[in-house]
Every structure is written in C-alpha cells, then in structure tokens.
Amino acid sequence: MTEEQMLAGTLKNNAAAQEALYDRYSPRMLAVCYRFAKSREDAEDMLQEGFIKIYTQLHQYRNEGVLEGWIRRIIVHTCINVLKKNKKFSETVDLIHANAFHTKEDLVPSIIQAKQVVECIRMLPLGYKTVLNLYAIEGYSHKEIGQMLDIEESTSRSQYTRAKAMLEDILVKKSIIDKSQYKNQYGRINNRK
Amino acid sequence: MEENFYRDEFEYFLKENVDEFKMVPSRKVWYSLYNNLHPDRKWPSMAVCLFILTAVLYIGIANNNSLSNAAKKSSSENFSNLLNDKNIDTKITFSAKDYTPVKSSHSKPFLTVTSQINDLALNNSEKEKVTLNPLATSGKNENSHTNNIENLKTITTIGSVNKSDELNNIGTNYSDERNIKSVNTINYSYKNNPLIETNKQIELPGNSEADILPIKITSQTSEQKSNLLSIEKSWVEDYAFRNKRAINKFKQNSTLSYYITPSLGYRIFSKTNDNSSFYSSFAAARLNNDPAQLIDNAALNLEAGTVLQYNISKRLRLKSGVQANYTNYVSNVTALGHPVLTSLTINNWGEIRSSNFSTKPGKDKLNKTIMQIGLPVGADFKIAGNETVSWYAGADLQPTYVLGGSAYLLSSDEKYYISENDLLRRVNLNTSIETFLSLKSSNGIVLNVGPQFRYQLFSTYKKAYGYSEKMYNVGVKVGITTSFK
C-alpha cells in the first residue's frame, strides 16, 4: 500500500489503511516515546494516544513536508503533554542534578550502540532527558522547548548543558564512546543553533 | 572553537544513533486503537455477551420451577377433565352463619378458591374445619346442587349468586356429617396445587334456577363414594408422581470447604543461561569471577481459599475453587548509599540498570514477594475413617495469575540486586500435595487439619531472565467443610 493510498484510506476511516499506517510508523514512534517515558508500558500508552490524534487530525496534513515528520511532531507533543499531565516533568526538571547519579565503569558491556545510547539517555533524570531529547534529537530550539515545557528559555539551555555533560560522562564510562574516536568519525559541524 | 566543534558532533552522534533505534509495539496497542477508532464495530462482541447473558438467565429461570411445563399441562388437563366429569356427584350443605354476602354480576354458580389447604393426607382429621363461604340466594334455606366438583382441589368456597337474589334468611346447617368429611377429603387431597390461584372464581355447569346455590351435600351412595375415593387417590398418586420433590443430586454430593494455610516459603534458585561466552566477547566487561554467596532465608507465607468438593465415590472426591497465595522469602543484602549502574542479562543481552542493593550479605533484608490468585483443581482420596474421623490425602494443580510482587534480580555479575517487576512471570502453575484429618462435629461441620506442600512448577521470572527461581512452601492447612444439605 502506497503512502497516498494509506492516507486516502485512513481519511475514509478504512481499518486496513489505518493498520497499514500504524504498522509502518509505530516502531519508530514507539522508540521516540520510549526515550521520554519511564517504562515501555508508559511508552505504549503514549504511542496509542499519539496515534489517536494522528488519525483524528490527519485531515490537517497538507502534504507539506514528510509525513513521518508530521507524525513525529504529534507523537512528541503527546509525550510532552502526558509528562506534564502526570506532573512528573514539572517536579523534576529543575531539581535533579547530575551528581545524584554514580556510574561504575566496569559493569556495563557495550553491546549494540544504538540501544545502549538510548538506554543511557533514559538513565538521565526526567528533566534532563526531556530537554536533551527535544533539542538534540527532535531538533526543537530552546525557545520552543521553553514554550512546550512552560519554562524559561535560559532554563532549557542550562538543563541541556547539564544533561549533555552527564550523558557524555555516562557514555564515556560505559566505553560506548571515546571522545577522540568519535570526533574523527563525525568530524563535521552541525550548524543548527 | 574546539569545544563547540565537539558539542555539535556530539548531537550529531546522538541523533544518528537514536534514529536507528526502533521498537515493535505489542499488538494490544493496535487493538486498543482499533476499538477507539471503530466503537461501532464492538457490536458483534456485545451481541455475543448479550446472547450468553440471556441464555444463562433463561436456563436459570427455567430450572428454578419445581414443575416442568409438561407436568403443569398434564395436571391442568386432569383438572379440567375431572371438573367436567358428570359421573361424579357431590352435594354440599352450607351453614348460614358461614355465608358472607358478596355482590357479583354472576348469574351462574361459581366456585371461589380462597386458600390452599396445607395437609396432603387423604384421611385427614374429620374435625378439621372446612371454611365454607358460599353465597346464598333469597328465600331458600336449603338448596341442593348436584355438581361435579369433587376434584376442585383447593376450593374452600363454593357458591353462586343470582342478580336478583338477596342474601337473607339462610339457616342451613351441616346436615350430613359424612358429606363434610367428603369435602374435607377432597380439599386436602389437592393441597398446594400451583395450578389453582386463590380468589379465582370458576363457573360451574348449570344455568337453571334449580342449579343456583346454596348447595348441600345431601347424600352419596356408597358406590359414588367409592368411585370418588378411587379417582381421588388416582389423581393424588398421579400428582405426587409428577410433582415429586426433585432430589438435588449435586447438593447431596457436594460440600464447600474454606481453608487457610500458614507456611514457610523458600526457593530453588538456579542459573538457566550460561552467559560466560557472551561476556568474554566484550573487552569492556570486567566481570567479577567470584560472585558473592547469596544468603537467603525462608519467610512466613500464607494462602487462603475456598473449594467446592464433589464426591464421585465413597472414597474419592473432586475439588475446585479459588485461592489467594502470598509467597515470599528474604535475602540478606547490603543497601548502597547511592544507586550504581550495573547490567542485567535479558535474553543474553546486557541492559543497563541501576541498583541500590549489593548481594554482599549484610544487615539489610530484601523481601521477595509474590501475590497470586489461583484456581486449584484436584482430588481428595479417603484413606480410612468412619462417620466422625477420616483421613484423606489430596493433590491439586493450580493455575495462578500473579497480581503483583517485588522482584529483585541478580545483575549480570551477580554483585547487585536490581528491582525489575516487569520480568515477573504473570501466569504460573503450582501443584500441592497434602494429607489431613477430618473431624466431623455434631452440627455437621467438618474440621480439616493437616500438612501441605506446595511447589511452583515454572520459574517466578520470565524466560528472558537468565535464572530460574521456583518457590515452595511447607505449611499446615486448617479448614472447615460445610454441606449444602
């Protein structure tokens, strides 16, 4: 089923088209939810809520840009709304400090990097990982993040700085990254500010 | 500049890695979505539920009646036939003092069923008072009416009314004692007939003035009486046969037992995955080759439940019911001042977790608990005994569902305990064997006491976890058994 057929069918409330859309995008979107959520079950709840919004708001999609990007934005907003609704985010975003976490470098074997990186991100305090996810991975600016999370732009910046430092520390200690090594590997400048 | 360059690279590194990561959601997410999107398509399942509910209700109601429809129909036909049988004559006399004026538009003789008589004996006491409450006609102290009323079961009022009649001047007495006996007999023999409603008027045959009540049983020939009693007996026997009290075999053979079993619980712990090769392939992993010795202690467990027991022979009975289990044991550990990162082997895959407890034995204790609800199915065999004391041996299988618990899993290097309830196996299977003494009290309640051993057949944790933990309990089962009789 092509993307056009999926879209047309979904708009007509066709169950097969809806399922095809879900099957195509749900694995990647669940990974997005998983980075924000506390557990896999929470992530699946977020995914479900997000897809309901996607199906009900699909008529607003104007074929401008990639469909996956549009879906991803809805999923991310859903995750943020769930976190805010549960009051988890607001309670921890300003309070958790990197010093609260200690790592032991001799315990974690590095396995597959992508999964390890995701798990390390999930180890961060909720406030840190939310800002880091939004800024470094989803591409939102600090101003947008501030609006989404009801915090100051400067707070978002400082949270991100701390989050990044903490994550680097974890990744290095787990031998997942080597600063000099990946500097050579990804030796290009990302111009996003 | 060097720092900025590095930061941008770091973000790129993160994004590239994270975008590669995918997870397959469980199918139930789609089903929930589908139900949300298509609520109208729930009707097939709702229809099935409704059908089942209706069927259950119908069966329940249909089986609640003491008389089957066929029996009712048959009895009703018998009643009509006997009512119209003109070969049987009965004459009844009423006393004026028992008459009560009742206004009615009826111009024909009628019978009023006012109550049902409670004694089934054919030859009931002759002194039993018959409640007669007939209506009278004017100017006739005594009248007779030949009627075929002998099978009118619970009829206690017989009378008639004429539009123009006044209810005066009635002075009839019970002139014939034998006739009254006959009335008694008739009435008593059809007690509790559910086919006859009280306060219902039934018209009697006859239209002429001569047929108008008050009526009197003036005489009966011996042949008539004999005939009457013969038919009466026949009807009663037939009625009794068709409406004999159903013997509830299930209740006769069933008992209900309630029990509680305090016990000591422990575990059999073993490693199911040899992950040494897995770890040796990673240079980064520096495993402790000398894992700490695990020091665990048994703890008090409890189970309680109720079972329905059904005797299939004198010595053997089946049982099934519902049971709640609280199972736990204690690990001696050392609580850490701060959480540490460690790894947990899941599906031969090391996943990062944090831990607050070291396996090094210390003063701290971890309670590893499971709460289950189970459906035991088994049998008891009576080894020996008499009316008051019996000795049984029993066994059962018990599918269980884990409602909750606290799971502390060994880290990959066996140096830490990690709290991970997600790896608890939700459905499990227990088995138990027991032997007990049953002591029957004078009021019919049976006290059961005896030892019980319960064993969990599958590991507490899912297969993904590299260790197996099977719980077992040794305890004393105490319970009571009551019958339905």
Summarize the model shown.
The complex is a heterodimer of chains A (193) and B (485). With 193 residues, chain A is an all-alpha fold.
Describe it for me?
The complex is a heterodimer of chains A (193) and B (485). With 193 residues, chain A is mainly α. Chain A has two domains: 86 residues, RNA polymerase sigma factor, region 2, helix turn helix motif (Rna Polymerase Sigma Factor, Chain: A); 106 residues, Orthogonal Bundle (Arc Repressor Mutant, subunit A). Chain A is globular and about 50 Å long. Chain A starts with a helix and ends in an 8-residue tail after the last helix. By secondary structure, chain B is an alpha+beta fold. Chain B folds into three domains: 61 residues, no CATH class; 172 residues, no CATH class; 235 residues, Porin (Beta Barrel). In chain B, strands 4, 5, 6, 7, 8, 9, 10, 11, 12, 13, 14 and 15 form a twelve-stranded antiparallel β-sheet that branches. In chain B, strands 2-1-3 form a three-stranded antiparallel β-sheet, with no helix packed on it. Classes of the chains: A mainly alpha (193), B alpha+beta (485). At the A-B interface, helix 2, helix 3, helix 6, helix 7 and helix 9 of A face helix 1, helix 2, strand 6 and strand 7 of B.
The outline of chain A comes out as: globular
> Mean pLDDT of chain A, as a whole number?
78
Q: How would you name the oligomeric state of the polypeptide chains in this document?
A: heterodimer
* Structural class by helix and strand composition of chain B: alpha+beta
* Rough outline of chain B: elongated
